[in-house]
Write a structure and sequence with these properties.
The chain is mainly alpha-helical and 512 residues long. It is built from 19 helices and no strands. The longest helix is centred in the middle third of the chain and has 50 residues, at 313-362. Helix 13 (313-362) packs across helix 14 (369-393) and helix 16 (429-449) runs antiparallel to helix 18. Helices cover 77% and strands 0% of the residues.
Length: 512
């Protein structure tokens, strides 16, 4: 198969420019409606449940989901689906445990929930550490992915590709805030779902729309082992640890949690999860079919030759089945995917810096509307420039560990304290702060000592920590520290506030 990947094509450039033009028009429209802090961070709380569900899906279906899972399934077979399953099953947990209390208790960030009854300054500083660490590691993965993808698809130098993504994203986050970000994510979700559906249908048409024929062809080409577990993860404990990180990491991702403040009330927050789960569930059901189709029709050798991680499996299949124009469309969708996710991450990082640290810690909650919006925009520029810089610095690195680290930090640092602040009366400020810091530091340290970094990146002969993902250790330690420190250093004021918090949690009395 001859491929035009790595060469700029007229169709790819046209689709790319169309998406950028539409996103800038949305930014212009949104900028005229973004004057207050609530409009900048939370789209004036006027997004409907259906719209927010699409935006959540757009925020969550990153390049790792679209290109990564298709590539893993194409090269590794059945085990590639562990990511699809792990990333999906967290959504019902989010619906039942976090969504309603988060919307009723918070304002702009998940730290608002923790600070409702715990001491403001220490808890916001600790939350900002956990939140910003998660955002930074997730952003590195997206930016390095963006540089590699656009370099392959449009033939641009890696550094230029990273700067283009960073600048375009900065323009619409800076001027349009959450309103622009939300609508770009909605458009991206529709494009992605439509593109992957068409790709899946074209692939399945080669097998008479019969999954059995597709699986038979996979088995014929690569043996029955391609349809059985054990190709990617051989250690059962590693599989459980990865599953925990993927499932509970969702409940600690700042850019996802932030989206629940864009809807008017808790009812719409629940609706948005129901819609998001439907869209994401559908996407994760069909993406393995794309991966298996690519492995048979394109072939593992060519997929691995173009990109050893398999990330080009879906674009190569698109070119084979729909020619250069369809490849151009899928390339533009991949670009839109990265742009939308990075925008959400930048806004989440900026809100932690400006709302949690500057307004509530430095200024003690006393900052006027104009000052808050100005600081939010300055923080957005800082986070955006950091994203571009890190993307360039980590050029050529294996970024799989960055995605794993983002989810490991999220489920270890952010999730335990957030859940316990809502459900456990005796959680103290000291307990929550210690839980966040221990979870963040331990998850980061164990990832560095794991085979993914210690052996694959740093080239040491053997790993100090045997598991590739530390969630089973770091998340457990985070919960244990929260319980132990809270019992050793009780917080009477926080306990007294628990009953007041419960009224707002479940009845939304006083919710913004």
């Amino acid at each position: 198969m001859q491929t035009t990947l790595g060469q700029p094509t007229a169709s790819a450039i046209l689709f790319f420019l169309c998406f950028v033009a539409v996103s800038l028009l949305i930014t212009y429209w949104a900028a005229r409606r973004t004057k207050t802090t609530t409009e900048y961070y939370a789209a004036a709380r006027q997004i409907t449940g259906f719209q927010n569900g699409l935006a959540l899906a757009g925020d969550y279906m990153s390049a790792a989901s679209f290109l990564g899972i298709a590539g893993l399934v194409a090269l590794k077979g059945f085990d590639g689906m562990i990511y699809a399953t792990g990333w999906l099953v967290g959504w019902p947990v989010l619906l039942f445990l976090i969504a309603e209390p988060l919307r009723n208790l918070g304002k702009y960030t998940f730290a608002d929930v923790l600070a409702y009854r715990l001491a403001n300054r220490p808890i916001r500083l600790a939350s900002a550490v956990g939140g910003i660490l998660t955002v930074v590691f997730y952003t590195i993965a997206q930016m390095v992915g963006a540089g590699s993808l656009i370099k392959l698809m449009f033939g641009l130098p890696y550094e230029v590709a990273v700067v283009i993504v960073g600048v375009v994203m900065l323009v619409y986050v800076l001027f349009g805030g959450m309103i622009a970000t939300t609508w770009v994510q909605i458009i991206k979700a529709c494009l992605l779902l439509g593109g992957v559906t068409l790709l899946m249908l074209l692939g399945m048409a080669q097998f008479g729309f019969n999954p059995g024929s597709l699986y038979a062809a996979v088995a014929a080409n690569y043996g029955q082992a391609a349809l059985e577990p054990g190709g990617l993860i051989t250690n059962p404990l590693d599989a459980v640890s990865l599953g925990l990180a993927l499932m509970f990491g969702l409940l600690g991702l700042p850019h996802i949690l932030m989206r629940f403040y864009t809807v008017p009330d808790a009812k719409e927050a629940r609706k948005s999860i129901a819609w998001a789960t439907g869209f994401i569930g559908y996407f994760y059901c069909i993406i393995p079919l794309v991966g298996f189709s690519a492995s048979v029709l394109v072939g593992r050798d060519l997929i691995a030759k173009i990109d050893k991680g398999g990330n080009m499996a879906a674009p190569l299949l698109a070119e084979l089945l729909g020619g250069t124009p369809f490849l151009g469309f899928i390339a533009a969708v991949a670009f839109a995917t990265i742009l939308a996710v990075v925008a959400g991450l930048t806004l989440a990082g900026a809100s932690a810096l400006s709302h949690d640290i500057y307004v509530n810690v430095v200024k003690g909650g006393h900052a006027n509307e104009r000052e808050q919006v100005r600081v939010a925009r300055i923080a957005t520029v800082l986070v955006g420039l950091l994203a571009i810089l890190l993307g360039i610095l980590f050029k050529g690195q294996n970024v799989a560990f960055m995605v794993g680290l983002a989810f490991a930090v999220a489920c270890s640092a952010n999730f335990p304290a957030l859940l316990l602040s809502i459900t456990w009366k005796r959680l103290s400020t000291a307990g929550a702060t210690a839980s966040i810091l221990v979870g963040a530091i331990l998850a980061t340290l164990l990832i560095i000592l794991s085979p993914t970094v210690w052996v694959d990146v740093l080239k040491n002969p053997a790993a100090v920590f045997p598991l590739k993902n530390p969630a089973i250790v770091s998340m457990t330690a985070s919960f244990a520290v929260a319980f132990a420190v809270s019992l050793l250093v009780p917080d009477r004021k926080a306990q007294a506030q628990f009953e007041v918090q419960k009224v707002r949690t479940y009845l939304a009395v006083g919710a913004e």
